């Protein structure tokens, strides 16, 4: 049976001829554009070759610039990564120094921990820490900052993490006193309003700016900082004053440690 199609070698030849024709048209157009009185066709062709080499040089130069830019980006990323590691190590070293000093002052063992998954909602203030039963954490242990500020306490323990209730949670309470005075009461979480003090009688001495600390009369260690008094409302018709306290540290900020037996 006769093959009606174009043989492959003929088709290939047509393609090659088309490419050569296009190149010839381009070269002729360029020669005509550059050709002037007193300038030979040969000189124009040399100019075309020179321009072609120049363009090839530009392309190679752009490629070299792109390669150098990629190298510089890698160096910049490495520098940033190194700086981040150094800053992290410095922060860790500073935190460890504070923990050692705090442990000496409290005469208790302290376990460093990181806080994450902080939930500050109208339903309560909770968070997770990255230490659990595998690290010796048990329910009821106190969580504080490296500066000795009360953060909360452990309520649920998992293998490698634990849930804590923060001091601003309405379900959190702790016995407290005014630093430097005999005035004492019970602090309750008040969500975004910090905490409020109950059982402060009208005769008790307390003022705005006073520092509130734990008494140690419950399961939470004594001498932990709660915050400073924001407002005091006196009402002779009421038995107790209304006292509001700003937390010394915002919920979820800074490094934390766990007080252990």
Give a verbal description of the structure.
The protein has 261 residues and is an alpha+beta fold. It folds into 3 domains: 41-107; 109-166, Rod shape-determining protein MreC, domain 1 (Thrombin, subunit H, Beta Barrel), CATH 2.40.10.340; 173-250, Thrombin, subunit H, CATH 2.40.10.350. 36% of the residues lie in helices and 29% in strands. It is built from 2 helices and 13 strands, in the order H-H-E-E-E-E-E-E-E-E-E-E-E-E-E. The protein has helices at residues 8-34, 41-106; strands at residues 109-113, 115-121, 124-129, 142-145, 150-157, 162-166, 173-178, 184-189, 195-198, 211-214, 225-233, 242-247, 256-260. A 7-stranded antiparallel sheet has the order 1-13-4-5-6-3-2, with helices on one face. Strands 7-8-9-12-11-10 form a 6-stranded antiparallel β-barrel. Strand 11 (225-233) and strand 12 form a beta hairpin. Helix 1 (8-34) packs across helix 2. The chain is elongated and about 110 Å long.
Q: What radius of gyration results from the CA coordinates?
A: 39 Å
Which percent range describes the beta-strand content?
A: 25-35%
Question: Which structural class should the secondary elements be placed in?
Answer: alpha+beta
What is the averaged pLDDT score? Answer: 79
Q: Going across the biggest sheet, name each strand in turn.
A: 1-13-4-5-6-3-2
Q: Tell how many strands the DSSP assignment holds.
A: 13
Number of domain units = 3
> What is the succession of H and E elements?
HHEEEEEEEEEEEEE
| CATH class category name of the largest domain | Mainly Beta
Sum up the structure in keywords.
261 residues, alpha+beta, Thrombin, subunit H, 3 domains, 6-stranded antiparallel beta barrel, 2 helices, 13 strands, 36% helix
């Amino acid at each position: 049976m006769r093959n009606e199609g174009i043989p492959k070698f003929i088709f290939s030849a047509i393609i090659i001829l088309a490419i050569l024709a296009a190149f010839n048209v381009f070269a002729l157009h360029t020669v005509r554009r550059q050709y002037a009185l007193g300038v030979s066709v040969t000189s124009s062709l040399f100019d075309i070759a020179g321009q072609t080499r120049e363009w090839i040089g530009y392309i190679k130069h752009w490629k070299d610039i792109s390669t150098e830019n990629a190298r510089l980006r890698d160096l910049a990323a490495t520098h940033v990564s190194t700086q981040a590691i150094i800053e992290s190590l410095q922060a860790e070293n500073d935190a460890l120094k504070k923990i050692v000093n705090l442990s000496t002052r409290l005469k208790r063992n302290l376990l460093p921990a990181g806080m994450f998954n902080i939930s500050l909602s109208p339903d309560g203030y909770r968070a997770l820490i990255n230490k659990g039963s595998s690290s010796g954490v048990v329910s009821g242990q106190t969580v504080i900052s490296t500066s000795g500020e009360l953060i909360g306490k452990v309520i649920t323990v998992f293998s490698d993490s634990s849930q804590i209730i923060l001091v601003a949670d309405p379900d959190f309470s702790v016995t407290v006193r005014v630093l430097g005075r005999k005035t004492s009461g019970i602090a309750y979480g008040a969500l975004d309003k910090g905490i409020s003090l109950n059982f402060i009688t009208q005769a008790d001495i307390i003022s705005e700016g006073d520092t509130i600390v734990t008494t140690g009369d419950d399961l939470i260690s004594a001498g932990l900082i709660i915050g400073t008094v924001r407002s005091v409302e006196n009402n002779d018709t009421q038995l107790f004053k209304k006292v509001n306290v700003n937390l010394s540290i915002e919920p979820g900020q800074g490094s934390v440690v766990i007080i252990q037996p």
